[in-house]
Amino acid sequence: MTPPWYTLANVAELDSPSLLLYKDRIQHNIGQMIALAGSCDRLMVHVKTTKMPEVVKMLLAAGISRFKCATIAEAEMVCQAGGNYLVLAHQLVGPKVDRFIRLRQRYPQVFMASLLDCRSAADAHQQAFARAGLVGHVLLDVNNGMNRSGHPLDGDIFPLYQYLHQQPNLHCHGLHVYDGHWRTPDFEARKKSIEQDFKRVEMLMEQIAAAGLPSPMLIAGGTPAFTTHRLREDTFCSPGTCVLWDWGYGDALREQPFQYAALLLTRIISKPAPGIVTIDLGHKGVAAENPIDKRVRFLNLQDWELLSQSEEHGVLRVQGWDALQVGDVLYGVPYHICPTVNLYDEAYVVEEGKATARWEVLARRRRLEV
């Protein structure tokens, strides 16, 4: 009998808990992203999920040349991996502005843009780039309903866009719109909600055109909205989670054809009471921001319930307790892969049923060199 796709022939050599990356599945997911977008040129893949230069190199090898980042460390990681185009999808404040400028100076061949959503931040950027003798590349961050960041689509947003174009040391390239709050499992219902909210963005685009300003670059959505925004011409899509995929999006976004490419390896370390086993997967091994029933799903265990977690322990109620042994290996799919990856210094890379290498999760660090 052929073993399940996720089992490792050399699992006895691997410590636990561990993060496993299945390279062929990552390659599959990259191919599916390109197929959905219709072209590599329309993708601006978010690296906040993987944080590894080796994955950036896989994306580059597939023809994807633009990247989105959440931190300066991620941006530096993209530069180190050979990327030449990135957008840092945060409004930088405090010392981060000067750090970003230093990164620009270290990698002058790389196009780097960041986000702005208010005049005070725009003024701080204008002054900092003027001191450095540089022009800062920026996009206006637009809030079209998520209410996490961005300028609301009100009467002040177009004047702010004009203001950005008037600054001598800023070059405003367009708009960034993240609508990750729409995660309804029904695709048609999700698509309808996304399109309804986007009508106000289209009105802003019309204002920009009527004023004779350059046609703006438009970056829209993340993974949940990817299958909607890919249908919109002249829009850059910036999915990220789908490079590795996870249980949460796998259940919610059924129209998206991605495979689990990252798993967690854990072991049973105790059988403290009948019907109860303890594993070495605690809060420090899997993202714990969701309720206890949305942490991890085991692929090789039936009829179980995660009762509790502490820092290094996970306690399960199980059926078939007598058949389970201390030391048994479990393979789990994280509910949320992005913060889970961030918990690990390195990941085992799986090829042809064996762990063959280890990749450093480099950009989990807040600071690399800059």
What is this structure, in a nutshell?
It comes from Cesiribacter andamanensis AMV16. With 370 residues, the protein is α/β, with parallel strands linked by helices.
What does this structure look like?
There is one protein chain. The chain has 370 residues and is α/β, with parallel strands linked by helices. It has two domains: 113 residues, D-serine dehydratase-like domain (Lyase, Ornithine Decarboxylase, Chain A, domain 1); 224 residues, Alanine racemase (TIM Barrel). The chain is 29% helix and 26% strand. Strands 1, 11, 12, 13, 14, 15, 16, 17 and 18 form a nine-stranded mixed β-sheet that branches. Strands 2, 3, 4, 5, 6, 7, 8, 9 and 10 form a nine-stranded parallel β-sheet that branches. Helix 4 links the parallel strand 4 and strand 5. Helix 2 packs across helix 3.
Number of helices: 10
CATH class wording of the largest domain: Alpha Beta
Mean pLDDT: 97
The sequence of SSEs as H and E is EHEHEHEHEHEEHEHEHEHEEEEEEHEE
Percent of residues in helices: 25-40%
Total beta-strand segments: 18
Q: Give start-end ranges of low-pLDDT stretches.
A: none
What distance separates the N and C termini?
52 Å
- CATH-defined topology of the largest domain: TIM Barrel
Q: For the CA atoms, what is the radius of gyration? A: 22 Å
Structural class: alpha/beta
Enzyme class: lyase
EC number: 4.1.2.42
Organism: Cesiribacter andamanensis AMV16
InterPro entries: Ala_racemase_N (IPR001608), D-amino_acid_metab_enzyme (IPR051466), D-ser_dehydrat-like_dom (IPR026956), D-ser_dehydrat-like_sf (IPR042208), PLP-binding_barrel (IPR029066)
